[in-house]
Amino acid sequence: MGGDHGPPVAVAGAAEATRRLSGRPVRFLLHGDEARIEAELRRFEALRPLVEIRHTAQIISGEEKPAQALRRGKGSSLWNAVEAIRQGEAAAAVSGGNTGALMAISKLILRMIGSGLERPAIVASWPTARGVTALLDVGANIDCAASQLVEFAIMGDAFYRAVHAADPAYRPTVGVLNVGSEEMKGHEEVREANRLLRAGGFDFDYRGFVEGNDIAGGAVDVIVTDGFTGNIALKTGEGLARFFAASLKQSLTGDPLSMAGAVLAKGGLDRLRARLTPPGGGPLLGLNGTVVKSHGGTDASGFADAIKIAYDLAASRYIEEIGRNIERLSVALAPDATNNVVSEAKSAE
Amino acid sequence: MGGDHGPPVAVAGAAEATRRLSGRPVRFLLHGDEARIEAELRRFEALRPLVEIRHTAQIISGEEKPAQALRRGKGSSLWNAVEAIRQGEAAAAVSGGNTGALMAISKLILRMIGSGLERPAIVASWPTARGVTALLDVGANIDCAASQLVEFAIMGDAFYRAVHAADPAYRPTVGVLNVGSEEMKGHEEVREANRLLRAGGFDFDYRGFVEGNDIAGGAVDVIVTDGFTGNIALKTGEGLARFFAASLKQSLTGDPLSMAGAVLAKGGLDRLRARLTPPGGGPLLGLNGTVVKSHGGTDASGFADAIKIAYDLAASRYIEEIGRNIERLSVALAPDATNNVVSEAKSAE
Q1: Do residues B239 and A217 make contact, with C-beta atoms less than 8 angstroms apart?
Q2: Cβ-based contacts of B231 with chain A (< 8 Å)
Q3: Across the interface, which of A232, A246, A275 has its CB nearest the CB of B177?
Q4: Of A11, A125, A298, B184, which one has the greatest count of Cβ atoms within 10 A?
Q5: Do A212 and B225 lie within an 8 Å CB cutoff?
Q6: Which fold has domain B115-278+318-349?
Q7: What CA dihedral angle connects A287, A290, A294 and A295, to 10 degrees?
Q8: pLDDT in tens, B140-197
Q9: Where are the beta strands (DSSP E) in chain A?
Q10: How many CA within 13 A on the CB side of residue B37?
Q11: Using only C-alpha atoms, what is the Rg of chain B?
């Protein structure tokens, strides 16, 4: 068990996730130092019967490069958690450890779906005025061809349906992040992705270009972008949220009247905090298996979010759905694709 | 006078700016419909002696493309405001009109500084925990070579010193926006820009890569990025600020106790709003002349911000400073530049 906080957060998170699943069956393989895990489990009696500990003293540090982790990581808690998926012992893995190592090891052990995907995409779920927007990729794929942006749309759609939609038959709305909504805006990759998505006949409801303000505005369910822009948008938002919280606190402690007001308004301010807090984890999408990264600095509640996301994904057929839509993309990208695309689009209607 | 609100906002903004300049000399040429401007001026007696109206009935609409505006815009209020700079009648132009048209017309009439700059860059000033961060480019230049990113650093430095620094000898700190702070992170353009900035011997204090959370965190004074990423970061922040304000309002009206608290805390909440509101305008940088775009939807206070920025820029030597640093960049980019760069860097120390 890695992450900035290790076993205390992961074990408390598992206990919290069990409560949230309220009776739905769940079991945990806990990979890490047995003595430390046992010590934490004493605080959660109800969790004990659901848990099996897989001892390892080996860990991958936060500083290790992905290539090092691939060479030296075998037998570590992170490696063993992913390997348990391939062995059929676990339906999903959740880790708070080194993101680069988790991606490299997951790709090596589980492989990518289809042949078109080069790296897993990381998806972030943003709270919005209307619910949640899923934004991807937020980190792994820096330079993205148009076809990769289409793959992100395919993966984001399947993720959204499995995790955020109340009705599994819901058709998520999807947009491509750009600097304006007109067709001629932006660079070649987003314009080509827009053409492919309009022509493709995919399962989701493609809505064209969206802008940065549409992320928190909730204009569509899924927003796709390259990992460079997505990472910067995500971190810009995280920085701004921290600045808001600090400014709010400072404003409400600046004079006695405001302080008294803040005490009275505690209920409202607590609701605000709950509303603005994003889930504590996001999946690596595009793998033949469910791997969720919980944020390094998260608490037990955030780790429980990550477990819940992993559970919902593993209980869905999202990997099959991604595979099916990626087939359609291959058809659309084939040299003589025009006719095929048209008939695909018609048969999908 | 264009912009979403036209003469009412611009005239009230000029009156407010005059108050803020508290006695420093200022005069206005107001370009637009004389009757409408006269009607607004009746509300601001003190402004009347500082104003000369330049009547034109011709306007450029918000929908007009830059190429159309160049062909048909001559004689419009926007065109005349920029032309007055070239004629030496005005030290700066402020416009709330069509951004693309303003950029194209400004470039045509005023020309870019030096030969390396292709388009003006738009700079946004973000409120942060420590003051203001200047972010550029936020819209005009979609695909940016490394040398353009360096030019943004040069322009952002001169802007920051003229507008945001209390001491004109202050050396602003500058960072390049990236997905991590390590040298090998990001795409080729940001890595090359990082090398050029480290070697260049410019006037500012270059600090290397920064991340999205550093924008609101205020890690450096000036953050440079390509116009695609910058536009998305800016609009992501704007969307989040709106969502935050709406959520705060909703949270504080959700129950009677919170409502009472919000009434008591009105002073603190007003301080919060003032603190989170960015200036209502940003300059187009890289031109041989000072042009400031006020945000289309801004109010009189925001328009006054734009006028104040234009005033501070015009009162500084920022255009000369940009020219001098761009010379240094040309030296650094010359094929046999290595020795020159080293001696430049030494002589700057």
Answers
A1: yes
A2: 179, 211-212
A3: A232
A4: A11
A5: no
A6: Isopropylmalate Dehydrogenase (3.40.718)
A7: 20
A8: 788 889 999 999 999 999 999 999 998 878 999 999 999 988 887 889 999 999 999 9
A9: 28-32, 51-55, 92-95, 121-128, 131-136, 173-177, 205-210, 222-224, 281-285, 290-294
A10: 24
A11: 21
Per the document, the length of chain B is 349
The CATH class that applies to domain A1-111+287-316 reads alpha beta
Q: Which long-range contacts (CB under 8 A, 24 or more apart) does A328-333 make?
A: A328/A200, A328/A201, A328/A202, A329/A116, A329/A147, A329/A150, A329/A151, A329/A154, A329/A196, A329/A200, A329/A202, A330/A114, A330/A116, A332/A196, A332/A199, A332/A200, A333/A147, A333/A196
Instruction: Count other C-beta atoms under 10 Å from residue A337's C-beta.
Output: 17
A153 touches A326 (CB < 8 A): no
Report the residue of B234, B240, B275 to disrupt the A interface, i.e. the one with the largest count of A CBs within 10 Å. B240
Instruction: Parse chain A into domains and list their residue ranges.
Output: 1-111+287-316, 116-280+317-349
Report the topology of domain B1-110+288-316: Isopropylmalate Dehydrogenase (3.40.718)
Q: Is the pLDDT of residue A74 over 80?
A: yes
A212 with B232: Cβ contact below 8 A:
yes
**pLDDT tens-digit series, residues A9-40:** 999 999 999 999 988 999 999 999 999 999 99
CB half-sphere exposure, A119, CA atoms < 13 A: 23
CA distance B300 to B5: 10
Residue B138 is encoded by which pair of tokens?
């936020």
Instruction: Give pTM, 2 decimals.
Output: 0.86
Taking the CA of residue A183 and the nearest CA in chain B, the distance in Å comes to 14
- Is the domain defined by A116-280+317-349 classed in CATH 3.40.718.10? yes
Same fold: A1-111+287-316 with A116-280+317-349: yes
Task: Give the count of beta carbons closer than 10 Å to the beta carbon of residue A42.
Answer: 9
Does residue B15 contact residue B44 with C-beta atoms inside 8 Å?
Answer: yes
Torsions phi, psi of A121, nearest 5? -100, 145
A vs B, Cβ pairs < 8 A, gives 203
Q: Give the lowest-confidence range in B195-199, B213-217, B342-346.
A: B342-346
DSSP secondary structure letters along A274-293: HHHPPPSEEEEETBSSEEEE
Structure tokens at A210: 């969206």
Q: Name the token pair of A124.
A: 């972030």
Residues A86, A87, A91, A93: is their CA dihedral positive or negative? negative
Out of A213, A234, A241, closest to residue B239 by CB: A213
The Cα A17–Cα A13 span in angstroms is: 6
Specify whether the CB–CB gap between B7 and B101 falls below 8 A.
no
Neighbours of B231 (CB within 10 A): 28
Please, which residues have CB within 8 angstroms of residue A96's CB and are 6 or more apart in sequence? A1, A2, A3, A4, A5, A6, A9, A10, A293, A294, A295, A296, A298, A303, A306
